[in-house]
C-alpha cells in the first residue's frame, strides 16, 4: 500500500476526483490500449455526465464494464481509437478539471478550485476519519462512482485481500466507526464477531456518536442515494466481469455485514442492514439478467435441435456443445446468485424486519417491494409475501405504509398473480380493515389502491367490495377520492347487468341504465351504512335515512335541530357526487338525470318491451307508456337521485364559474331553460314526500330568475311562486320550511320581477294571517281555552311557519295589525299562546316553543327601528315605549319559564325560553349598546341588565342541563359499582387496593372510550351545544358575569371536544380579566371552584379517573402568566393570588381527607390524594417564598387531618410529587438569584441519598450551598447588637421543620444583606403565620426554638437533618437544644476555645 500511495496516480482527460490505489502500481492489471481510448469510451457511455437521480436498470446497463482480457491480441471493444503498436504510454494521475460538463452528478458543483472535496474538513466536522477512499467517493457529491467501482474491481483482481479490507473499512466509516481491519483480519471469518465486539465497545462510550444515514449534516444529505448507487454499480460490474462468482467478494461482505446487522449498536445494525438490503436489490437485477440469458440460450438450443434434425453434421454438433457449455455456465451462475440471495434473506431480512427500530423495519419492507418488482419469479411467492403480510399490523405508520406500497408493486405483476392467491385470501380481511379504519390517512389511501388492484383480478368477496364501496361516504375527502375508481368499476358492472340480453342497446339506453345503476348502488350502500351506524333494520327507518342528509333527523327533534344546522350543509350523497364526478359519467349528466326523474316510474311495467318498440324517437309524453324495467326507479331511488341532480347542477355551476364569462352564462342559461320546463312536473310528482319536495325546493335557487322575464314567461314565474307558497303552507317540517324560506328569499332578490314578488308575498302574508285567526276564532281567553289535538297541531304548524318566515322578513307591521281594534293582532294571539306554557301540556310543547321564537324575532325587528336621538320625537318616543312594553312582557314570561320556581313548564319550552332570554339580554346588554367609536347604538335607550339572582338561576339551569346530558349520553359509574370493587379487593393492603382499583378504572375507561355515534346522540349533542353556546355568548358579551362560568369549566374534558372548545373560550376571558384588567381575585375564585367541583366528580363516583381534572388544571394554568417570543414571560399574575389558590385548595382537600380518615374510608382517602396531581400544573407561576408558604400550609393541613404521609406508599405518590415540585421551585429560584461560588460537598455519610432529585430538592430548600467546612469554627459572641440577628437566624432555621426538607441555611453575607428585608416587622417571616399554631417558640426573638413532633421521620429525613446540623455548625452557630435561653437585655459572654 505504501508503494501505491507514493506513486503518481493515473491522470484522466475527464474531470474526476483523484482515487487512491488499492494495490501496488506495478501489480495492477495493464489496460490494453491508450488512455485516450479508454477515456473516449467513458465520455460516450458514462451516464453520470447526463443525469442525476435514482439509478434504474438503464443506468446500470449503460455503464462501462471491465472485460476479461482474451487470450491473444486485441484490446477492449469501444468507440475510441484503435490501440497503437508498442508499449502503452505511462499513465498519468487523474485530476479534476476546472471546467467542462459531466463531471459528476447533475446539479452538484464540480470538484475543483472552490468545489474541491476536503476529506480533512469532513473528518473534523463529522469525527469520521477520511482515510478511506471508497467512503470518501461515496460522500463526495462530485465523485464519479463508476470510475471508483472500476478501480476497486481492478485492485480486487490483483490484490483481493487489500481491496476487501478497504471495502469493509468503508462500511465501518459508513457506520461512523474509525476502527479498521487489515488484509489478514478481513479474511479471518472466525474472528469477525470478536473484532466487532471490540469495535462496538469503544463506540458505546461515545455519547456523541453519529453516522451518515441518520445525520442531519448537509454533507450527508445524499449519502443514502450515493451508497445505493455505489452498491448497485459494484454488484452489476463485478457480475459482468465474473468477479462476483470467482472471488471471495460476496463471502467477505456477507460474513461481515450479516454479523454487523445483528449488533446491539444501532449505527452498525442500521447501516449493515441497509447495505445488505441494497446488495440484495442489486443481486435481483443480476439474477433477472441471468434468467433472461438462460431463456435465450434455451430457445437457441431448441432451434439448434430443429436444425440438427434436418442437417446432420459436425458443425451442428459443435454448435450444440457450445450452447450446452454456455447453459451449464449460466446454471452455475444462477445457482451462486440464488445462494447469495438466500444468504442475505436468511441472515439479515428475516431478523431485521421485526427490529425494534421502526426505521430498520421500514427499510426491510421497502426493499422487499423492490425485490417484488425486480425479480418477481423468485420473490412473488408465499414464503416471502407472508413477511409483508405480517407487518401490515405494525404499530409504526411508516412501516405499514411501506408494506402497502410493496403490495402495490406486487399486484401489478399480473403474470404471477396465481402464486399470490393464498396470500391474498389470508390477508384480505386485514387489508379491508386497514382501508376502513387505519389511523393514518396515507395508509388508508394506499390500501385502497391495493384492494382495487386485487379486485381487478376478481379476488375480492362481495361483502368486502360493498364494505370498500361504503368509503365513498367517508368523512375524509382523500379517501372518497381514492375509492372513486373502485366504485366506478362496480357501477360499470351493475350498469352492464341492467342491459344483459340486449344486442342493440342505444347510447340513450346505456345512459338511463347507468342512472338506474347509480341510484340502486347509492341506496344499497346508504342502507348498509345506516344499519351499521344505528343497528336498526327497520325498513321505514332505512328509507328515511337513505335520503337523509346532515340536516335530517328523527321527527321528534326536527324542530330543534333546524335552528342549529345550516341549510347549506352538504348531504353525504352530495359528497359522494363530488368524489365520483371525474370517474362516473352518469354523475355529471344532469340532463339525463332530469329526464329519468320526470318519467312516471309508478306506471305498470307490463309489455314494456313492446311499448318500447312501438315508440318512435322524439315522441312526447313519456309517462303515457310504461317505463322500461332496465331503468325504472323505486321511490327511495328517486329521492337519492334528486339529491344527485341538485348536487350535479351545483357542481356544474361551480365549474362554470371558473370558466370564461360567456361560457358560464351559456351553461346557467341552459340549466335554467331545462328547469323552467321541468319544475312544475317535479312539484306535482314529489309534493307528498317531504324529503323529496325539500330537494325540489332547492332547485329554484340554482336558476337565473331573470330569464323568466327575458323569455316572457311571467305566468310561469307566478306559477313557480304558487308552487313554492303551496309547499310552504302545507308542510310544517323544518326539512321543508327551511329550503322553502330560502327559495322565497331568492325569489324576492329578483328585482326585475318585483311586481310579481310584491303581489305574491302579500298574498302569502294574508294567508298566514287568515289561517291563524281561523283556528283561534270564537275563543275569548286563549290562555286557558281548550283546543283539540288537531287544533294544537295546526297552531304548532302555523307558529313554525311564522318563525321561519319572520326570521327572513320584517313582519312587525303584520304582527301588530288589528284593523283599528276590530280584531286581535297577531302579537296578542301569539302572546296568549305563549302564556299557555304555564299549563305544561306535553302536546303543546312544540307550539309554545315556536311562539316564543316568533315573539323574540319580533322584538329583534322592532329594535332595528329604534333611533339614537337623545330627544326623540313624539312618534319615536311612542315607538320606544311600545318596544319596551312588549320586551318586558316577553322577558317576564321567559324568565318564569326558564328559571322560575313555580312554573310547570316542559323541558323543550324551558330550553327555548332560556335561549331566547339570553339572546334578548345580549341584544340589550349595556356593554353591547356602545359602538367601537364610543357612540351609542339605537338599543342604548332600552339597555337591560340581568340581576344577580337571575344569573345564579341561569347558572343552575346550565348545571341541570349538563347533568342531564351526562346521564343520557355519557353515563356514569354508580356508587354500587365502586362498592363492589371494594368488596372484590377486600383483605388486601391499602396500596394494593389502590392499585387494583386503578387497574379496574382503566379497564372501565377503555370500555367507555369508544362512544357510539348514533344519529340520536348527535342530535342530542347539537341541542346541548346550542344551549351551552348561548350561555357562552351571554358571558362573552357581559350579559352574564364570568364568575358563573365555573359551571362549564368543572366538566372540561368529559363532554366532548365541542364542549371543551367552549371552556377554552371562557378561560381566555378569565385570563384577560386577571392579566390585563387586574382582577386577580376572579381568577382565584374561578380556579378554586372549577378544580374542586371537577375533582368532586371523581370523589362522588361520577368519573373514574382524575384525568379530566388534571386537564382542566393545565388549561387554567394559562391564566397565571403570558409568554411571548422565546417563552419570555410578558405578564404574570400577582403571586399572592396563586398562593391563595393553593392554600384554599389544600384546605378544601384537607377537610375531605379528615372526613375519610375519621370514617376509616381508605378508598376515599386514596382518591382524595389524587387531588395533589391536579395542583401540580397550578405551580407554574409560584415563586420560592410562596412555595415555602404552601409547603408549610400543606403540612399543617395534613397534621390537622390526622393523616401521616407515607414515603413508599403508592397512593401518596401524588403528594410526594407535589412536595418535590415545590422544592424544585425553591431551588430553581435560589440558583437563579445566588452568585456563583465554589461548592464543596457536605459529609457524604450525613447527606447520602439514593435519589439525586431529593438531594437537589434539599439543597434548594436550604437556599444557598454551605460555606467551606472548617475544622473548628469559632463561636460568635452574643451582644445586644447581634442578639436580634442571631434569633432571626434561629427563627429562619426553624421555619421549615419538614421531615423531607432541610431548613433554609444562609451564609453570613447573604444573611446580612437580606436580614432587614426578610425578617423586619414590616416583612415577617414567610412561615410565621401558617406555623405559629405548631411552634410555641419564636415569640420574643430570644427563646430557643422547640420543634413539635408531628410524625415519625424516615431514615432519609434524619440524614437530612443531621447534615443540616453539621452545616449550621460550620457557620459558627450553636443551635443545640440544651443551650440556656438568653434573657432580654442581658449580655451573654462566652469563653473562647483555644485550638491546638
Automatic annotation (TrEMBL):
GO terms for molecular function: chromatin binding. SUPFAM superfamilies: ARM repeat (SSF48371). GO terms for cellular component: chromatin; cohesin complex; nucleus. Residues 65-80 have a biased composition (Basic residues). GO terms for biological process: sister chromatid cohesion. Residues 314-323, 544-560, 1223-1232 have a biased composition (Basic and acidic residues). Residues 1301-1310, 1328-1347 have a biased composition (Polar residues). Residues 36-61, 980-992 have a biased composition (Acidic residues). Residues 349-434 form the SCD domain. This is SCD domain-containing protein.
Amino acid at each position: 500500500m505504501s508503494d501505491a500511495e507514493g506513486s503518481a496516480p493515473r491522470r484522466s482527460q475527464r474531470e474526476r476526483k483523484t482515487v487512491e490505489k488499492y494495490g501496488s502500481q506495478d501489480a495492477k492489471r495493464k489496460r490494453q490500449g491508450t488512455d485516450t481510448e479508454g477515456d473516449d469510451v467513458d465520455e460516450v457511455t458514462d451516464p453520470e455526465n447526463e443525469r442525476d437521480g435514482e439509478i434504474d436498470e438503464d443506468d446500470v446497463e449503460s455503464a462501462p464494464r471491465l472485460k476479461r482480457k482474451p487470450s491473444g491480441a486485441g484490446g477492449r471493444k469501444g468507440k475510441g481509437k484503435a490501440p497503437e503498436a508498442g508499449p502503452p504510454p505511462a499513465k498519468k494521475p487523474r485530476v479534476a478539471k476546472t471546467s467542462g460538463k459531466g463531471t459528476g452528478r447533475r446539479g452538484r458543483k464540480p470538484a475543483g478550485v472552490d468545489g474541491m472535496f476536503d476529506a480533512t474538513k469532513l473528518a473534523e466536522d463529522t469525527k469520521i476519519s477520511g482515510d478511506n477512499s471508497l467512503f470518501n467517493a461515496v460522500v463526495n457529491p462530485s465523485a464519479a462512482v463508476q470510475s471508483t467501482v472500476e478501480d476497486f474491481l481492478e485492485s480486487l483482481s490483483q490484490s483481493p485481500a487489500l481491496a476487501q479490507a478497504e471495502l469493509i473499512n468503508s462500511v465501518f466509516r459508513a457506520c461512523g466507526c474509525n476502527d479498521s481491519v487489515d488484509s489478514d483480519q478481513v479474511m479471518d471469518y472466525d474472528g469477525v464477531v470478536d473484532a466487532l465486539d471490540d469495535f462496538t465497545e469503544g463506540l458505546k462510550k461515545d455519547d456523541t456518536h453519529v453516522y451518515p444515514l441518520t445525520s442531519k449534516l448537509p454533507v450527508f444529505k445524499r449519502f443514502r442515494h450515493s451508497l445505493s448507487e455505489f452498491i448497485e454499480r459494484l454488484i452489476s460490474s463485478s457480475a459482468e466481469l465474473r468477479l462476483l462468482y470467482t472471488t471471495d467478494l460476496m463471502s467477505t461482505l456477507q460474513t461481515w455485514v450479516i454479523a454487523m446487522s445483528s449488533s446491539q449498536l444501532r449505527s452498525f445494525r442500521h447501516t449493515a442492514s441497509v447495505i445488505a438490503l441494497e446488495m440484495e436489490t442489486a443481486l435481483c437485477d443480476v439474477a433477472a439478467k441471468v434468467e433472461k440469458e438462460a431463456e435465450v440460450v434455451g430457445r437457441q438450443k431448441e432451434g439448434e435441435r430443429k436444425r440438427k434434425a434436418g442437417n446432420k453434421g459436425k458443425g451442428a454438433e459443435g454448435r450444440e456443445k457450445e450452447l450446452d457449455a454456455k447453459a451449464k455456465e449460466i446454471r452455475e451462475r444462477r445457482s451462486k446468485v440464488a445462494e447469495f440471495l438466500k444468504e442475505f434473506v436468511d441472515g439479515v431480512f428475516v431478523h431485521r424486519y421485526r427490529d425494534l427500530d421502526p426505521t430498520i423495519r421500514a427499510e426491510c419492507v421497502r426493499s422487499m417491494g423492490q425485490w417484488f418488482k425486480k425479480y418477481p419469479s423468485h420473490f412473488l411467492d408465499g414464503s416471502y409475501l407472508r413477511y409483508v403480510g405480517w407487518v401490515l399490523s405494525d404499530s409504526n405508520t411508516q412501516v405499514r405504509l411501506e408494506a402497502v406500497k410493496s403490495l402495490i408493486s406486487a399486484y401489478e405483476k399480473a403474470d404471477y398473480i396465481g402464486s399470490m392467491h393464498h396470500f391474498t385470501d389470508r390477508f384480505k380481511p386485514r387489508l379491508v380493515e386497514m382501508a376502513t379504519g387505519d389511523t393514518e390517512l396515507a395508509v388508508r389511501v394506499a390500501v385502497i389502491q391495493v384492494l382495487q388492484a386485487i379486485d381487478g383480478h376478481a379476488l375480492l368477496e362481495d361483502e368486502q367490495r360493498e364494505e370498500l364501496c361504503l368509503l365513498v361516504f367517508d368523512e375524509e375527502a382523500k379517501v372518497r377520492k381514492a375509492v372513486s375508481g373502485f366504485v366506478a368499476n362496480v357501477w360499470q358492472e351493475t350498469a352492464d347487468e341492467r342491459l344483459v340480453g340486449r344486442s342493440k342497446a342505444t347510447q340513450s339506453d346505456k345512459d338511463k341504465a347507468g342512472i338506474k345503476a347509480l341510484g340502486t348502488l347509492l341506496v344499497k350502500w346508504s342502507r348498509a351504512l345506516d344499519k351499521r351506524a344505528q343497528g336498526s333494520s327497520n325498513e321505514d327507518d332505512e328509507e328515511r335515512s337513505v335520503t337523509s342528509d346532515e340536516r335530517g333527523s328523527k321527527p321528534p327533534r326536527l324542530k330543534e335541530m333546524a335552528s342549529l344546522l345550516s341549510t347549506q350543509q352538504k348531504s353525504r350523497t352530495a359528497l359522494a357526487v363530488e368524489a365520483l364526478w371525474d370517474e362516473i359519467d352518469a354523475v355529471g349528466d344532469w340532463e339525463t338525470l332530469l329526464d329519468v326523474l320526470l318519467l312516471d316510474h309508478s306506471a305498470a311495467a307490463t309489455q314494456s318491451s313492446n311499448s318500447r318498440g312501438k315508440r318512435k324517437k322524439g315522441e312526447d309524453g313519456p309517462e303515457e307508456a310504461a317505463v322500461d324495467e332496465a331503468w325504472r326507479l323505486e321511490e327511495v331511488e328517486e329521492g337519492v337521485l334528486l339529491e344527485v341532480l341538485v348536487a350535479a347542477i351545483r357542481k356544474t355551476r361551480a365549474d362554470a364559474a371558473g370558466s370564461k364569462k360567456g361560457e358560464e352564462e351559456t351553461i346557467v342559461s341552459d340549466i335554467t331553460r331545462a328547469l323552467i320546463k321541468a319544475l312544475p312536473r317535479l312539484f306535482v310528482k314529489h309534493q307528498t314526500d317531504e324529503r323529496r319536495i325539500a330537494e325540489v325546493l332547492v332547485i329554484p335557487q340554482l336558476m337565473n330568475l331573470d330569464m323568466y322575464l327575458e323569455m316572457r314567461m311571467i305566468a310561469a314565474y307566478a306559477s313557480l311562486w304558487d308552487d313554492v307558497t303551496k309547499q310552504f303552507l302545507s308542510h310544517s317540517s323544518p326539512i321543508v320550511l327551511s329550503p322553502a324560506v330560502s327559495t322565497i328569499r331568492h325569489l324576492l332578490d329578483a328585482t326585475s320581477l318585483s311586481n310579481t314578488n310584491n303581489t305574491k308575498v302579500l298574498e302569502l302574508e294574508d294567508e298566514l294571517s287568515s289561517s291563524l285567526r281561523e283556528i283561534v276564532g270564537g275563543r275569548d281567553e286563549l290562555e286557558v281555552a281548550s283546543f283539540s289535538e288537531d287544533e294544537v297541531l295546526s297552531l304548532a304548524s302555523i307558529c313554525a311557519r311564522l318563525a321561519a318566515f319572520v326570521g327572513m322578513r320584517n313582519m312587525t307591521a303584520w304582527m301588530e295589525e288589528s284593523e283599528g281594534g276590530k280584531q286581535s293582532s297577531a302579537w296578542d294571539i301569539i302572546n296568549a299562546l305563549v302564556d299557555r306554557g304555564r299549563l305544561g301540556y306535553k302536546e303543546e310543547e312544540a307550539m309554545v316553543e315556536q311562539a316564543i321564537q316568533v315573539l323574540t324575532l319580533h322584538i329583534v325587528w322592532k329594535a332595528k327601528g329604534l333611533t339614537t336621538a337623545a330627544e326623540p320625537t313624539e312618534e319615536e318616543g311612542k315607538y320606544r315605549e311600545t318596544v319596551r312594553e312588549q320586551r318586558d312582557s316577553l322577558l317576564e314570561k321567559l324568565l318564569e319559564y326558564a328559571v322560575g320556581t313555580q312554573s310547570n313548564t316542559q323541558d323543550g319550552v324551558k330550553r327555548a325560553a332560556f335561549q331566547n332570554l339570553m339572546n334578548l339580554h345580549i341584544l340589550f346588554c349595556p356593554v353591547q349598546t356602545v359602538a367601537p367609536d364610543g357612540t351609542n347604538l339605537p338599543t342604548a335607550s332600552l339597555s337591560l341588565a340581568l340581576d344577580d339572582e337571575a344569573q345564579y338561576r341561569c347558572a343552575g339551569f346550565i348545571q341541570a342541563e349538563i347533568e342531564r346530558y351526562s346521564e343520557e349520553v355519557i353515563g356514569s359509574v354508580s356508587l354500587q359499582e365502586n362498592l363492589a370493587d371494594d368488596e372484590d379487593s377486600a383483605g388486601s393492603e391499602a396500596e394494593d387496593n389502590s392499585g387494583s382499583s386503578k387497574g379496574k378504572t382503566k379497564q372501565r375507561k377503555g370500555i367507555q372510550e369508544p362512544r357510539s355515534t348514533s344519529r340520536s346522540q348527535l342530535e342530542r349533542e347539537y341541542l346541548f351545544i346550542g344551549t351551552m353556546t348561548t350561555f357562552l355568548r351571554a358571558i362573552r358579551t357581559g350579559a352574564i358575569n364570568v364568575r358563573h362560568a365555573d359551571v362549564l369549566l368543572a366538566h372540561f374534558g368529559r363532554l366532548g371536544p365541542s364542549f371543551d372548545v367552549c371552556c377554552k373560550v371562557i378561560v381566555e376571558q378569565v385570563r384577560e380579566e386577571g392579566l390585563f384588567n387586574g382582577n386577580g381575585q376572579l381568577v382565584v375564585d374561578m380556579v378554586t371552584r372549577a378544580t374542586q367541583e371537577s375533582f368532586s366528580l371523581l370523589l362522588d363516583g361520577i368519573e373514574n379517573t382524575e384525568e379530566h381534572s388534571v386537564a382542566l388544571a393545565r388549561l387554567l394554568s394559562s391564566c397565571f402568566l403570558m409568554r411571548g417570543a422565546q417563552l419570555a414571560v410578558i405578564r404574570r399574575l400577582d403571586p399572592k393570588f396563586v398562593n391563595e389558590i393553593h392554600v384554599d385548595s389544600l384546605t378544601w382537600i384537607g377537610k375531605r381527607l379528615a372526613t375519610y380518615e375519621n370514617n376509616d374510608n381508605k378508598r376515599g382517602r386514596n382518591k382524595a390524594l389524587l387531588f395533589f396531581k391536579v395542583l401540580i400544573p397550578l405551580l407554574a407561576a409560584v415563586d420560592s417564598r410562596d412555595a415555602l408558604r404552601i409547603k408549610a400550609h400543606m403540612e399543617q393541613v395534613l397534621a390537622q387531618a390526622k393523616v401521616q404521609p407515607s414515603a413508599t406508599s403508592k397512593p401518596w405518590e401524588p403528594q410526594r410529587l407535589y412536595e418535590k415540585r415545590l422544592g424544585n421551585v425553591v431551588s430553581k429560584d435560589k440558583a437563579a438569584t445566588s452568585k456563583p461560588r465554589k461548592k464543596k460537598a457536605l459529609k457524604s455519610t450525613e447527606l447520602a441519598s439514593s435519589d439525586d432529585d431529593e438531594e437537589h430538592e434539599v439543597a434548594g430548600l436550604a437556599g444557598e450551598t454551605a460555606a467551606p467546612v472548617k475544622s473548628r469554627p469559632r463561636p460568635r459572641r452574643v451582644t445586644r447588637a447581634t442578639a436580634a440577628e442571631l434569633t432571626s437566624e434561629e427563627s429562619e432555621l426553624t421555619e421549615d421543620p419538614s421531615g423531607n426538607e432541610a431548613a433554609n441555611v444562609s451564609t453570613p453575607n447573604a444573611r446580612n444583606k437580606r436580614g432587614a428585608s426578610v425578617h423586619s416587622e414590616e416583612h415577617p417571616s414567610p412561615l410565621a403565620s401558617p406555623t405559629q399554631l405548631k411552634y410555641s417558640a419564636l415569640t420574643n426573638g430570644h427563646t430557643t426554638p422547640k420543634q413539635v413532633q408531628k410524625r415519625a421521620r424516615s431514615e432519609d429525613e434524619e440524614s437530612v437533618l443531621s447534615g443540616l446540623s453539621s452545616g449550621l455548625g460550620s457557620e459558627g452557630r450553636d443551635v443545640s437544644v440544651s443551650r440556656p435561653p438568653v434573657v432580654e437585655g442581658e449580655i451573654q459572654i462566652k469563653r473562647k476555645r483555644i485550638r491546638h
